[in-house]
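Hey, can you fold this?
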Amino acid sequence: MERVAACMWRLRRLYRVEAENFTHAILAIELNDASEEVARYEVSFGDLAFEELCPVHVRDEERHARATARLGKAQRFA
């Protein structure tokens, strides 16, 4: 009987671990997608070394704002 209880306990733990793994994977995908979406609305006129001297131009303010909000939310949960 002890062995059955131990196996049941392990199975319940396994389900939680599996759910956490899937959640983590989904959040990582969401973070990546949100980052790419933000970047789609940005156009940089400079080299990465001079990023602070060459500001990023935003092509669509409204969509960029929504994408940035989505990215912030994804960062909080990731």
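Oh, and this one too while you're at it.
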Amino acid sequence: MSRLTTTSVASQANYTLSALAFDVDAPVSYLSSGGTTRVPIEPMSRDEYMQKPDRTSTASVPSQYFIEKTLSGGRVALTMYLYPVPVGSGDTIEYAAALRSKDFTDGATNPDFPSSWTNCLKWGLSALLAPSYAQAPLVMVFKPLFEEAREKLLGADNEKQGITFVPFGSGSY
């Protein structure tokens, strides 16, 4: 996930998001121009957005958003609808976006994933594509290699430290 931003326009409800993004993850935040405190805005479903009796209602800070996905030129295009519609211009809307991977057209391109994932991705893709290339028996070779690499990655992403939970109001923190 990458943090991206867009800028509000007075009385505009919908914003076309970055062409590099193919999905948005909560939380989304809103920062008024000249302000220092970000306000979280909550996601809503398409149904919830469509049920709003007046989608042109305005406020200084929106409280909800809806992401519409459409196809444009064979790619997903994202539009964010804010509710209520912001009245100010120049405010910042920050969102976490899942970005499209880069095309590997030459050896100079760096991947968008950690290098520790390379073997796992390589073995998984090999197992997936082997039948398409009339190499079905190789699935039994690549699949165990993929599963081993995946388990290694899943096990490597854990913190191995103690944790203490303190109930709120116990008086000692």
